[in-house]
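Exercise 7. Predict the joint structure of the components listed below.
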Amino acid sequence: MAEDLYSVLGVAKTANADGITKAYRRLAKKLHPDLNPGDAEAEEKFKQVSHAYSILNDEDKRAQYDRGEIDASGQERPQQQQQQYYRQYAGGPEGARYHSAAGYEDISDLFGDMFAREAAAGGRGGGRRYAMRGQDAQYRLDISFLDAVNGTKQRITLPDGGTLDVAIPPGVSEGQVLRLKGKGMPGMGEGPPGDALVEISVKSHPVFKREGNDITVELPITFDEAVLGGKIEVPTIVGRVSVTVPPGSNTGQTLRLKGRGVKSKGRAGDQMVRLNVMLPETIDDDLKSFAKKWREDHGYDPRRTLKEQA
Amino acid sequence: MLTEQDIVARIHHLTVTRLRVWVTQGYIKPATEAGQRFSEADLARAALICNLEDELGFAEDDVPVLLNLIDQIHGLRSELRGMVEAVDDLPPDVRTTVRLRIERGRQG
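Solution:
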């Protein structure tokens, strides 16, 4: 027993003939087999729509259907179904005369779709041997900032209990997807297995920030270190190194540590050390009296250019 | 082969005048040796044009646009079929390489 004919056309039971024709045309334009060659689903829907229309468009038959004298499958096959569609010829030698000679450059999508359909039909066709590649499997892996910049090996436990070893290359970045060849679902027939796709998520680090292959670190220094300079220990992604801060260093200045950044694909980034001069937490009397005395003899104006420009 | 009369007789609502307009417009291209001779494909194509105009309510001006697109689709499908058949004749490992390459292309 078929579906209610009115709902097939998407109209109310009270719709007039005009409304039924409009609804039919709107659906038929979308579903017509010659406008959808190769789409079996559209063809099936088109048949239902045409059938519903053939009954509802006929005043007598519609009245019979409304009274329940004929059911939705109808008494007679509608004429539509005997029709030979043009597309049945279009692919043959006769239809070839009409083929448009337009050039198609980007056909990989269509070709791929068709390939998949041919492969899917293979079981019934016989004669042809099809090999289907297995599906790709998707995983997600959270790693620490330092593992991401330095690279590491991690083992993922799979839902089925198996494990997957993932070699994470140095310099992997947030959202990057690692493809492990052949580690996905098994293939069909001679088909190769799919790949495992591992999406990497990198946790942030309280000290290190990353911009491309460069690492940025903020380095607090004391007032006296800023004035006199000196050797100061700085954390890098591979451990602490000693850095010479020149005398007279100021907040906002950066020191570049060549080659101390992320080593990715043979090229190493730098580490940028941004200086931040910090006064002591409590200002004692010594410092106060020094500042007062110093100000009397050595006044300077750090806001000169600011005043000139604004 | 079919004559003009055969075509008109076999398609409901079709008149000789209409059919001749379509031939003049190039929508239908009958073989012309010894008068016009139509094939089964021409018959189905005439039925399609009738269907587009009468059943689906497309305007006459829409028909050449639709035919052009339909012809492009079939031209394209025919070329693709040729490619699929060519690929099918390749050794299995080469077929796999082609298929992987296509899938990679589809993932962008």
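Discussion. The first strand of chain A starts at residue 137 and ends at 143.
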